[in-house]
Amino acid sequence: MRILTIFGLMAIALMASCAPRGALSPEEAYYMFRKAVRDGDAAAVESVLSKDALARVSSLAKALAAMDGSRRTAVAKELRMSESAFASLTVRDFIALQLKLDAADEGGIASSVSSGIGGVTVNGGKARLVTAHGAELLFVKEDLYWKLDSGPL
């Protein structure tokens, strides 16, 4: 009986390790992104972004961190951040900041992804998704999973 229990637990562990770890369609990637934005979950947003999108966000974060002292101080103060935190923005910090700012803006990212899907056009490893509100988002397939390639961030 113990052997059956052990094999059963091993089978469950194996199935769990084979479970999808990303979006298997552009639609699924959109809904993952939408949930992450709604939840204010920067880590989840980061996980749905393509390598190119992450590189663009990284460049933006580095550009902000590289501002000269007085300008950086003013922007950090306006964003209610410490200057040291602002000077060392990571990709996830930048996304979290964007989500925080978006929460105060009715026309921001959350409103762009608040609706369902109006249509999807897939062309090989690229897809264009149009929301029911008319926002267009581009997705790219990286390995097995679809990622948001460009958009509101």
By CATH, the topology is: Nuclear Transport Factor 2, Chain: A
The domain count comes to 1
Broad structural category: alpha+beta
User: Can you give the helix content as a percent range?
Assistant: 40-55%
Number of strands: 4
Describe the overall structure.
With 153 residues, the chain is an alpha+beta fold. The chain has a single domain (25-150), classed as Nuclear Transport Factor 2, Chain: A (Roll), CATH 3.10.450. The chain is built from 8 helices and 4 strands. The chain has helices spanning 2-17, 26-39, 42-48, 51-65, 69-78, 83-87, 91-103, 109-112; strands at residues 117-123, 126-131, 136-142, 145-150. Strands 1-2-3-4 form a 4-stranded antiparallel beta sheet. Helix 2 (26-39) runs antiparallel to helix 3, helix 3 packs across helix 7 (91-103) and helix 4 (51-65) packs across helix 7 (91-103). The chain starts with a helix and ends with a strand.
List keywords for this structure.
single chain, 153 residues, alpha+beta, 17% strand
